[in-house]
Amino acid sequence: MTTRKSIHALPDHPLELEKIRDAFRHLMNSAGDNGYQKLAGIHGVPEHLCKHVPSDEGVFLAWHRAYILNFEKALQQIDASVYLPYWDWTELVGVPAAIPLACTDKTYDAAGTPMPNPFFAAKIALEANRLTTRGTYFSPTSRYRALQAIIQNTLPTLTSTSYEEFNTRIASLHGDVHGWVGGDMRHTDYAAYDPIFWMLHAGVDYLWAKWAEALRTHLSPDPPPSILDKPLAPFEVALDGERRIMKVADVLQTAALGYTYAGIGENPALIPILNHHNGAFHIENFSIGSRKIFIKILGLRVSAESFFINIFINQPDADFHTPLEGNDYYATSFAIFGMGNSAHHNLHHHALTADIEDRWLDISASFNKLLATGKLQNPDRLEIKLVAVDGEEKPVDISRLPFQGVSIETR
Ligand SMILES: [Cu+2]
Fold it and tell me: Which of 132, 158, 165, 232 can bridge 246 by disulfide, Cβ–Cβ 3.0-4.6 Å?
């Protein structure tokens, strides 16, 4: 089983990083069907086989999963120990690293010899071996700010409640990242020649896997039957000794394809709470270790109305009447401070993204107290219940609250 790690984690694992760069460099020097030029050429020029929204028939995610898996297998033919790192662009790491650092170094140390960094640029053989380029439109701080805006648009996407919705929304947002990187990444024809393409698409694939795992506890993340048989040409599978073109149904489980992601499966992170109008959700197999636990309120919008929300841990029947005093299952509270009529004014005078924010609520102390006093019969099942009242202190349905989702984060 291959475990793909974050590109942001690789500078902490210099030997692993060097091996992956070596494998990329060899792939770039390989000709034939498993060479970099052939693999990159599947997407845009010259083969033009990629599937993108809006005309992708719902297979953007599935097609690109098959595509990068095929690429990773070519890397593993060079060195079986390597994997394709993923770039989750929502994991923002400082100004210079807005583009992952491992992709911006011009050279790297290959067994003591400085070599061109194969994550920085690649040749395009069809264009007289010119090197791929990236955009120069942004200053580093503007680049950082623009990525923050894209992140704010991406997080609410993770609360999509169907495959088709997630496929369409994440496709547009990953397109924003293509445009943000700039240069050849801005054009479908040449994007796949830039080595960062593979990590960006591994990031899309990672977000798909993470989203699907979180949704699965409530709803099916699988595509509808009408999509399952759609072909993912030119990629093939061998089944019962017979080779055939892969289809969507073949790529729904990463484990069945032989890979997984570091982090996924530990604590499913995102809960599409708006479908759960009673405000309760739970996480099975929850583990905390020594880390802190946060409830993250995603995509909070400017609101005319005010609300007050109480949060309970492992008290799923908590409601409007549940006392807070003397109740160890009560964790924390937060308010949405309504803007009244000035909400309208505010919406007009700020950029849209400035009107959306995330709130972090630390519930570690309450959780640890419950744990220490033996009040959690089943500590690996974390149940969260949100109970909300409006400005008149009347109970309100969670679906009326002006945010897009709730996640659990451990740090
Ligand atoms: Cu793409």
Answer: 232
What is the whole-number distance in angstroms between the Cα of residue 265 and the centre of ligand 1?
Answer: 25
User: What dotted CATH number matches 2-261?
Assistant: 1.10.1280.10
- 214 versus 315: the higher-pLDDT residue is 315
- Residue 368 CA to its chain's centroid (Å): 29
The distance from CA 60 to its chain's CA centroid, rounded to whole angstroms, is 15
Closest CA to 96 of 143, 132, 137, 136: 143
* Residue 354 scores a pLDDT above 50: no
Q: Are strands 2-4 and 259-261 parallel, antiparallel or unpaired?
A: parallel
**pLDDT for residue 137:** 83
3 state SS of 200: helix
- Whole-number Å distance, alpha carbon 236 to ligand 1 midpoint, is 21
Range list of H helices, 258-355: 342-349
Look at the domain 270-410 and name its fold: Hemocyanin; Chain: A, domain 2 (2.60.310)
pLDDT at residue 178 tops 60: yes
Q: Residue 383: helix, strand or coil by DSSP?
A: strand
Determine the distance separating the centroid of ligand 1 and the alpha carbon of 176, expressed in angstroms: 9
Global confidence as pTM: 0.75
CA of residue 60 to ligand 1 center, whole Å? 9
**What pLDDT digit, counting tens, does each position of 208-243 carry?**
998 898 788 778 999 999 999 999 999 999 888 899
- CB-CB contact of 277 with 295 (8 Å): no
> Which residue has 């909400």 as its token pair?
343
What is the H or E stretch that residue 361 is in? strand 356-362
Spatial separation of the C-alpha atoms in residues 352 and 184, rounded to whole Å? 28
In the chain, domain spans: 2-261, 270-410
